[in-house]
Write a structure and sequence with these properties.
The chain has 146 residues and is an alpha/beta fold. Helices cover 45% and strands 20% of the residues. Strand 1, helix 1 and strand 2 form a beta-alpha-beta unit.
Length: 146
């Protein structure tokens, strides 16, 4: 199977640059395109704190910030000889990543892990693990903390 399109979910945390650098290296070696994606999850009523702005305004601002960060990510990496695109998605993180990979006809997903262990993994689950379980294409899990 030839890998032509790689989906790279990003969370814009402090290690995102390591994941991006690795994904760009792999894409260059395979002459593949990269599609970055970032998922904004909707707030639940439990997420609201007393005195905070309306949930709609808060979600709108988070989306705007995510769109700006995605535009910067693409701008920073599109001049490296690869086709780079990106999209901000809204919904459940795992479901949106899987749907986007299918929609884009991805041949691979390169996803970072936070390396959660023990109780943290049990309570929060692992997005990377669930993406690997549900994905139609091969997944490469990277630990950007190493």
């Amino acid at each position: 199977m030839k890998i032509k399109k790689i989906i790279v979910p990003v969370d814009f945390e402090k290690t995102t640059h390591k994941l991006v650098e690795f994904a760009l290296y792999i894409a260059t070696q395979l002459s593949a395109e990269i599609d970055f994606c970032h998922v904004v999850e909707p707030f639940s009523m439990g997420d609201m704190m007393l005195g905070s702005p309306s949930m709609g305004d808060l979600e709108k601002q988070i989306r705007i910030n995510a769109e700006e960060r995605m535009a910067n990510l693409i701008e920073d990496n599109e001049g490296k000889g690869l086709t780079c695109r990106g999209k901000v998605l809204f919904g459940d993180t795992v479901d949106e990543i899987i749907a986007y990979a299918r929609e884009q006809g991805a041949n691979m997903v390169i996803i970072g892990t936070h390396g959660a262990k023990g109780l943290e993994k049990i309570l929060l689950g692992s997005v990377a693990e669930r993406v690997v379980q549900k994905s139609d294409c091969p997944c490469l899990v990277v630990n950007p903390y190493k």
